[in-house]
Specification:
Number of helices: 6
Low-confidence stretches: none
Mean pLDDT: 96
Strand order of the largest sheet: 1-3-2-6-9-7-8
Strand content: 15-25%
Largest sheet: 7 strands, mixed
CATH architecture: 3-Layer(aba) Sandwich
Length: about 250
């Protein structure tokens, strides 16, 4: 099977929504260190390599919302599609206490090659989808680890990241989620929603598109059943948010 850097599901689905999944895969393409970053299998199954559960949740959410879904098909450890080109963490050499052997001595020539063969084709395809309709709402799906090494446990089941320059939909979504009595909702948790050059910045904030970045704690979506359940829960909440906000 020929590798391509991105997959699109339901390109012709008619909804306003566009679901993106930057960290869908832990796959290492053959052209990057021969397909092996030098990490054991157990590390490649961790959150450092991809967003656990995010792909299945995104695909089901796209089906329920009748919306296109675009996913990056390589591990974030190869080159992170959710970073700006000038971000020093674009290619990670150390992540959550783990050294990435194949990246330890990576040079600018190799980084630029990864940009051209993996990063940029994904972002070009994402922008084409986002630009296909003027009223698009970009929903970026991610997951986060319940706990990083040496850090406190993260109590939120779900977080919504937003930036002041374009947070109308994100804040409305938080308000809807906070009506769910069993959820601890993170407002710009576990990360801040303003990251220069990330996917939302490139494809939503700069062009002025409605958006939200949803982070699900990955022990909430680590089985196919829980991914289906969370997608089923999120779809009506997103629809209600959009309807009631009037955006």
């Amino acid at each position: 099977m020929t590798y391509i850097p991105f997959s699109i599901y339901g390109a012709d689905r008619p909804a306003r929504w566009l679901i993106t999944c930057d960290h869908a895969s832990n796959f290492v393409p053959e052209d990057i260190a021969g397909g092996d970053l030098g990490l054991p299998t157990e590390d490649m199954q961790r959150h450092i390599a991809y967003d656990v559960g995010a792909l299945g949740t995104s695909l089901r959410l796209g089906e329920l919302l009748d919306a296109p879904v675009i996913c990056a098909n390589w591990s974030r450890l190869c080159i992170d599609p959710n970073r700006g080109l000038d971000d020093p963490t674009l290619v990670m050499r150390l992540y959550d206490g783990t050294i990435i052997p194949a990246n330890r001595y990576v040079d600018e020539i190799e980084i630029q090659r990864r940009v051209e063969t993996h990063y940029q084709p994904y972002h070009d395809a994402l922008e084409r989808l986002a630009a296909a309709r003027k009223d698009v709402v970009v929903i970026a799906m991610h997951s986060f680890s319940p706990k990083l090494k040496g850090r406190a446990p993260r109590p939120w089941e779900i977080g919504v990241l937003h930036a002041p320059s374009g947070d109308r939909f994100g804040r409305a979504l938080i308000a809807q989620l906070e009506q769910e009595p069993d959820l601890n909702v993170g407002d710009n948790e576990p990360y801040n929603g303003e990251l220069h050059g990330d996917s939302i910045d490139q494809h939503a904030l700069r062009p002025g598109r409605l958006n939200a970045l949803i982070e699900l704690r990955h022990d909430e979506i680590d089985t196919p059943q829980s991914q289906m359940a969370w997608a089923g829960r999120l779809a009506p909440i997103l629809e209600k948010t959009l309807a009631e906000s009037g955006l």
